[in-house]
Design goal:
Elements (H helix, E strand, L loop, with lengths): L27 H4 L9 E2 L2 H10 L3 E6 L4 H11 L2 H10 L1 E6 L4 H15 L6 E5 L5 E5 L13 H14 L1 H18 L19 H14 L16 H13 L6
Helix pairs in contact: 4-6, 5-7, 8-9
Length: 251
């Protein structure tokens, strides 16, 4: 976890007791978790390498800024120092903004739906060190209620299962990967395939995507598609880039 001190031990002007790696992220949603006592990692090679090196399961939390229950989970559990210690002891914790990484969100949402029969946000997924999901859910309360276990109980149960039923967990993860491969041609991709990569996309494909998005645009009320409408910064960024390239026939 990042220290709240500057060079040579001098205090920073930031008065927060805790500051973690998310302080360096651009996402406003991730920034909202930058002062949790949780030892958060953004999705990337550092977190995946850490999980592999320490042979720890990954706790993956996916949400977005406009999500009420995401903020409830942050306030009730992620800002609790005792829960943060529990997470650090047993897991490598990764925070993802679904608006930045819809690819990760889609993949792991499908996994949660396969595991539980439903989905939603915040998405809480437990992965093997290689990134394969084996357990998941959405919001967990700080104390048992709503016919749900508390978040603390979930963490302890998963940690105990990882310690005592490792082979069973890995078998379940492999079975889930097989089930996902039936609904996705590419199957469960390796986590390193979700790291930023550079690829060439044909101009015609970009133009077709632009037209499809513009067809869904609401020129009166704004946004895309029918209600409920959620912020889509990646869509807007794509359209702005296409406008700059003058690739859209609609200018």
């Amino acid at each position: 976890m990042t220290s709240a001190h500057g060079n040579e031990g001098e205090p920073m002007t930031d008065t927060h007791e805790h500051t973690n790696r998310l302080i360096h992220e651009l996402s406003p949603y991730l920034q909202q978790h930058a002062h949790n006592p949780v030892d958060w990692y953004p999705w990337g090679p550092e977190a995946l390498a850490k999980a592999a090196a320490e042979d720890k399961p990954i706790f993956l939390s996916i949400g977005y800024s406009a999500c009420h229950w995401c903020h409830r989970l942050r306030e009730e559990s992620f800002e609790d120092a005792s829960i943060a210690r529990l997470m650090s002891e047993h897991f490598i914790s990764i925070k993802v903004d679904r608006e930045e990484r819809p690819d990760l969100d889609a993949l792991y949402m499908e996994a949660v739906q396969q595991l539980t029969g439903s989905g939603g946000w915040p998405m809480s997924v437990f992965l093997t060190p290689t990134g394969a999901p084996f357990a998941g859910g959405t919001y967990f309360p700080p104390e048992p209620r709503y016919q749900m276990p508390s978040f603390r109980q979930v963490l302890l149960a998963i940690a105990e299962a990882w310690r005592t039923r490792r082979e069973e967990i890995e078998r379940q993860a492999a079975e889930l990967a097989g089930a996902l491969s039936q609904t996705a041609r590419s199957g469960l991709r390796k986590p390193e395939n979700f790291l930023p990569q550079t690829a060439r996309v044909p101009v015609a494909t970009l133009a077709q995507a632009t037209e499809a998005l513009l067809d869904r645009m609401d020129p009166v009320l704004g946004g895309f598609g029918p209600a409920p409408k959620f912020p889509q910064p990646m869509t807007l960024d794509f359209l702005l880039r296409m406008q700059a390239r003058r690739a859209s026939p609609r200018g």
